């Protein structure tokens, strides 16, 4: 096996970490914009604009989960990452339906807004469950810190509908979600580096 082959097999790819980290970092301001602009603007953008910007973290997180699934060595972990990517993609599809296809509840047909919102909620639920399944897989494979970050992300995502009753609580919940994805992105390289070397040829 050449040095390059050895690094390819045992070295952790950087893409999942970068994509998940950037997704988590952009999640927080995008969600804050969504939460505070129903009747106004923030940084020059209104409610619909911030919702459309939510596609940025959702696309980054989807791509990060896909990259992690491709790099994972064990089947259960690959499946968990793939389902997580599906949840992010569904949420992004819901946003696109509601705010790009339909124009949002404030400026488009109510039926399309409801359809998009439903798909978004489904995506959030799939994401939460997948994060908890991923946490169980990472708890067995390590590192434990990555498993803990996935647990926090999953529980905080499940708690979001209740947290949304009060803005300050919802904001804290969304910051927790974003930071959890950042932490998972930072720690995931250790998990992905635990790949079994394969024989050449």
Automatic annotation (TrEMBL):
Key word Chloroplast present: no
Segments passing through the bilayer: 12-30, 50-69, 81-105, 117-139, 146-169, 175-192
Annotated keywords: Membrane, Transmembrane, Transmembrane helix
Domain of life of the organism encoding this protein: Bacteria
Protein name from the UniProt record: DUF998 domain-containing protein
């Amino acid at each position: 096996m050449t040095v390059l082959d050895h690094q390819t097999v045992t070295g952790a790819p950087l893409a999942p970490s970068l994509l998940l980290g950037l997704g988590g970092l952009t999640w927080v301001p995008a969600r804050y914009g969504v939460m505070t602009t129903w009747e106004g603007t923030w940084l020059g953008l209104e409610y619909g604009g911030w919702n459309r910007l939510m596609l940025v973290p959702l696309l980054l997180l989807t791509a990060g989960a896909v990259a992690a699934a491709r790099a994972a060595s064990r089947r259960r972990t690959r499946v968990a990452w793939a389902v997580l990517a599906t949840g992010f993609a569904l949420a992004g599809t819901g946003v696109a339906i509601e705010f790009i296809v339909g124009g949002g509840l404030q400026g488009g047909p109510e039926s399309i807004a409801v359809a998009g919102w439903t798909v978004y909620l489904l995506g959030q639920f799939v994401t939460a469950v997948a994060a908890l399944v991923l946490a169980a897989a990472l708890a067995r494979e390590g590192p434990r810190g990555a498993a803990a970050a996935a647990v926090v992300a999953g529980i905080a995502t499940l708690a979001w509908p209740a947290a949304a009753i009060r803005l300050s609580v919802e904001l804290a919940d969304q910051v927790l979600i974003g930071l959890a994805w950042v932490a998972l992105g930072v720690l995931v390289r250790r998990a992905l580096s635990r790949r079994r070397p394969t024989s050449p040829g």
